[in-house]
Amino acid sequence: MCNAAGIAYADVEYRLLNQAMLHEIMNDCARALQFLRYNAKKYNLDKTRVASYGESAGASASLWLATIDDLADANAKDPVRRESTRLAAAGGFMVQATFDVVQWPKILGLPEEKTPYWRMMKSSKVRLGEKRFNELRKQMDMLGNMDKNDPPMHFSPGREDRGVHSQLFVEVLKKRAKETGANLIVRGGRESLIRFLTDKIKTRRKPDGKPVRKPFPKHWGDPPAIQTRDYRKLPGGYGFGSGTLAKWIQKNLDNDANKQKREGK
What we know:
Blueprint: H1 22-38, H2 40-43, E1 51-55, H3 57-67, E2 89-93, H4 104-108, H5 118-128, H6 130-139, H7 142-145, E3 153-155, H8 167-180, E4 184-186, H9 190-201, E5 232-233, E6 240-241, H10 243-262
Parallel strand pairs: 1-2, 2-3, 3-4
Antiparallel strand pairs: 5-6
């Protein structure tokens, strides 16, 4: 869907909790954003039009990037660190409203000992020391960092449970957005999110005003969500994309052709 909308995308392989602490993982995400901006010319990117989206922890990482103050360091020796971390838009599925796990029992209505990641949080406090732990609580708190100057955001409704993908996180996120005047949309569906991101980063058009790729017929449904990383010319005049997308297009073209034969057209 990103290809179809003329959007370049990067898959950020941040470290996991068995490899790094949470604030270090978020810094991986910020660093990836800065790296892409620093190499914008190399990769033919427009650094002024960058959005972020993910699922679960990836959605929350996008929310964190959207709400944290710009991490650019103009005086850094490393030129990558001089780049901005601000986004034009952010979104995702199954988001957590804050990485400050201390708030989770109240949000989820759970006793501390049954709250997800509670033991990890307590271990981190011991490891970091109380002063540093409290500093990072503020840094990792998307609810506390949210304000009206944050970029537009689009997240899906959560599940009707009290787990890490709970709708209760989304409810508190909506409440906070209303309090701060932040621009937040809560709506399900991958197509809705892609349309939102496309609109916010305003994809380029060809000189004749036509879309980068002609749209797929509506009766085909959604393209495959998971695709291979190869890149080739697509059948049917749909430009270039993955082998997975090529097979999906060809299958639909064949189905349409067979249907027309059966109907005698």
